[in-house]
């Protein structure tokens, strides 16, 4: 861990952070006196946001029930401690579970009937929040009716070539605003601004309250019959004397009081404190000092990062050079590995990759050599017999034709095997699974190998499945098991046996071919499924009987089915080759003969 690149980077970052913290602490101590004061603009904006939000809640709710979530939301958004309390100090809602001690004075009083104009919140001339509509709020039927009228008026205005829009009051009363007032007048736009039944009823109630107030103020009877007019923002009067205006304001507040939340005191403080929000600013001298300290920290950071980067760049340059040498054709390019950090592990991974590439190149050359060797023998035989026939040394009889055909078929077999492997390498080896009867497939396979097994003196046994319904590509499955059986018969001495079986293990289907032949050495087992591999390198195709591609193809066929292959063997006792397929969804009606029939048709061309 002490040499880890991560630890070193963390150590460098920690060093820089310690220097930065120490410098900041020193600067804060040096500039504390006279540098800290309230950031009026920011505090005003934050306080105004919270105040406006809670004021809107109070204007639209008859009480403070449910305001706790609103208080917590504003506290989380602004990073402030927000407490709402009654004028007697009883907490209504708090952003903290424990509101603690409240400041001596509230930040502001929240009263929708007496808005504080100092916080930039919109209100009417009588300081009543426009959102406090109370009995003037329109029901849905009136809203719908007025909205339809407003849409018709707007369309009329637009048809007359004027721009317009619809505005809606907090109570839900729409009106049309047009750029051309004459177009609005011709479209009867004024009719929509008349009070509805709901608004008129509330307006009449307000008139009664105003008249009662004027009567209590010793006004004459004619003066007591003061009428109110309706506007988009609510009721108003043309009276200008102070007594009348006072009565109108008082009546409006009396009318709206049941519909709004009672006045509450709002406390906005620093989080976890009872002190009002504050910040600090720096004088010009202190700003210059801060710039100097920041510059010193920047230089220190650049130097520390540069020294650390040098240690990183050197091994990366070595890796780049080795990669370029590999690109130029050097298969065994290596880099020196020093240390145990992440770059050292990267260098080791590069060396492992280079070694694997070198082995792959060696295997590729060996494979081409093996392919040339496998093709050379039958081609040499065909050429030799044809030249002998051309020179008159041999006669082209039925036996010679049969021999040449056998060599040509062997060439075709090698080419087909190479094509299958090429498709597997390219990911283009396709299988066509279908419901088949495994017992029927094994029976036909045993019949196909019976003559060869009998000639070799080998007993061929088939153990059927209890539940033979299998979903697989019949041609590819037959090709794989056929390869196992051919190898087993070839490597089993006279008097031995080869057993072909199929069973179910959990959710998988397992095909096994067991022989009592010569077996395979333990050191050779990991290479059995490699291409062109033979246990005895000195054996020729004529002795071994195969090209060394069959088991590699079987492994590719199993992978194409999503399965695996494996082998168990004891030298001198025999071998067991296993093909394991994951079992797909069981077909409702397996076709016993369809897959095998198609297999027969597709296998005729392969001899």
Gyration radius (Cα, Å) is 48 Å
Mean pLDDT: 77
Number of strands: 17
Uncertain regions spanning at least 5 consecutive residues = 33-41, 220-224, 537-545, 585-607
Strand order of the largest sheet: 12-14-15-17-16
Helix content: 40-55%
Q: Biggest sheet, in brief?
A: 5 strands, mixed
Tally of helical segments: 16
Distance between the termini: 64 Å
Label the structural class: alpha+beta
Strand content: 5-15%
Q: What is the general shape?
A: elongated
What keywords describe this structure?
single chain, 607 residues, alpha+beta, five-stranded mixed beta sheet, four-stranded antiparallel beta sheet, 16 helices, 17 strands, elongated, disordered C terminus
Could you describe the 3D structure shown?
- The protein is α+β, with helices and mostly antiparallel strands and 607 residues long.
- Helices cover 50% and strands 14% of the residues.
- The strands form six sheets. It has a five-stranded mixed sheet with strand order 12-14-15-17-16, with helices on one face. It has a four-stranded antiparallel sheet with strand order 3-2-9-4. The chain has a two-stranded antiparallel sheet with strand order 1-10.
- The protein starts with a helix and ends with a helix.
Short characterization:
The protein is an alpha+beta fold and 607 residues long. It is built from 16 helices and 17 strands.
